[in-house]
Design a protein that fits this description.
Among the domains are: 35 residues, no CATH class; 185 residues, Rossmann fold (3-Layer(aba) Sandwich), CATH 3.40.50.1100. Helix content is 35%, strand content 18%. The strands form three sheets. The protein has a six-stranded mixed beta sheet, sandwiched between helices. It has a four-stranded parallel beta sheet with strand order 8-7-6-9, with helices on both faces. A three-stranded antiparallel beta sheet has the order 2-1-3. The radius of gyration is 19 Å and the shape is globular. The protein binds zinc ion. Its EC number is 4.2.3.1. GO terms for molecular function: L-serine ammonia-lyase activity; pyridoxal phosphate binding; threonine deaminase activity; threonine synthase activity. Pfam families: PALP (PF00291). This is Threonine synthase.
Length: 341
């Protein structure tokens, strides 16, 4: 198992202190049939339920990812990455995230007895911050947007000679997300759904599921849903020439202005014959409330694909279409404290 550059194909070991190729290309993971990722570090993962939910006459399937041990799907990626890094005797890691990625990594790092430092935007929800601190990670608050947070983390990696355990740069993270594709496939009696709706910021879930279903042998159509206030993938996919600058959205986990894996995401959408759509903050809040009325409390970002699916199938959906919506994160950590800005 090793990393290789998506552009020039140069190979790098998994424990490389580089997080991208010297040519500027991003890493992909090479893994053959014999390669496995250790599973020793565990904090009680489950196969998350695939729950049929009815909105009016339309049935959809919620993949209950907020029931993962850290409250979001990012536990899957953190588990794979921390296990592999532990196996490679790496004991000092740095990550940056808007919240769920950092808390997942902090949790698994704690279980693996690793030193973990996370860079988070100062606008992080108070509940998420408390979660990360409780796991014992060193927290560094960064003033500025998501990109500023990533820059601060990268600087620290060089200065402190730590390993950049980024959920965006490091392909080991995507490797962990693949397990969700296999679970969905088995829960549908070895079938691939027609559609998967998902919120997209950095594209962690989109790419993880894309590679997972690619391994299974058939792709669902991925419909990426973004906030209309911050939608770089939508603008690129629709080839928009005139775009308004990104602005605030309550969907804080996907408030990413310049996703580094944009090309890879476009490939996933195109090859899966998918689509990219946007929703407003009002539509997100409405979907969050509708979901709450069914007894399921999700964070705003997790309501984004629900709002997207309801909009996409407003005029009806063929009964035989199986639509899966991963519920990315729990609502329990509270809304972003800047929502009334
Ligand atoms: Zn390269």
């Amino acid at each position: 198992m090793h990393f290789y550059c998506e552009k020039c194909k140069k190979e790098y070991p998994l424990n490389s202190t580089s997080y991208q190729c010297s040519c500027g290309g991003l890493f992909r993971l090479y893994k053959d049939d014999k390669d496995t990722i250790p599973q020793d570090v565990s904090i009680g993962e489950i196969v998350t339920p695939l729950l049929p939910i009815k909105f009016g006459k339309q049935e959809m399937f919620f993949k209950m990812e907020h029931l993962n041990p850290t409250g979001s799907f990012k536990a899957r990626g953190a588990k794979a990455m921390v296990n592999m890094l532990k196996h490679l005797d790496i004991d000092n890691i740095v990550e940056d995230s808007s919240g769920n990625g950092a808390s997942a990594l902090a949790a698994y790092a704690a279980a693996a007895n690793m030193d973990c430092t996370v860079y988070v935007p100062e606008s992080i929800a108070a509940g998420k911050l408390h979660q990360i601190e409780t796991y014992g990670a060193h927290v560094r608050l960064v003033i500025g947007n998501r990109e500023a947070t990533a820059e601060a983390a990268k600087k620290a990696v060089v200065q402190e000679e730590a390993y950049y355990a980024s959920h965006v740069y490091n392909p080991l993270f995507f490797e962990g997300i693949k397990s969700m594709a296999y679970e969905i496939y088995h829960q549908l009696d070895d079938n691939v759904p027609e559609y998967v709706f998902l919120p997209v910021g950095n594209g962690t879930m989109l790419l993880g599921l894309y590679y997972g279903f690619e391994e299974i042998g058939r792709l669902p159509s991925f419909v990426a849903v973004q906030s209309e206030n911050c939608c770089p993938l939508y603008n690129a996919f629709k080839k928009k020439r005139k775009v308004s600058p990104p602005s605030f959205t309550i969907a804080d986990a996907i408030r990413v202005e310049k996703p580094i894996r944009l090309k890879e995401m476009l490939m996933a959408i195109t090859r899966s014959k998918g689509d990219v759509i946007t929703v407003s903050d009002e539509e997100i809040e409405e979907a969050q409330h509708q979901t709450g009325r069914k007894g399921i409390y999700v964070e705003a970002t997790a309501a984004v694909p629900i709002a997207g699916a309801l909009k996409y199938f407003r005029k009806g959906k063929p009964d035989n279409y199986r639509v899966v919506i991963p519920i990315t994160g729990a609502g329990l950590n509270g809304p972003d404290k800047k929502r009334n800005r």
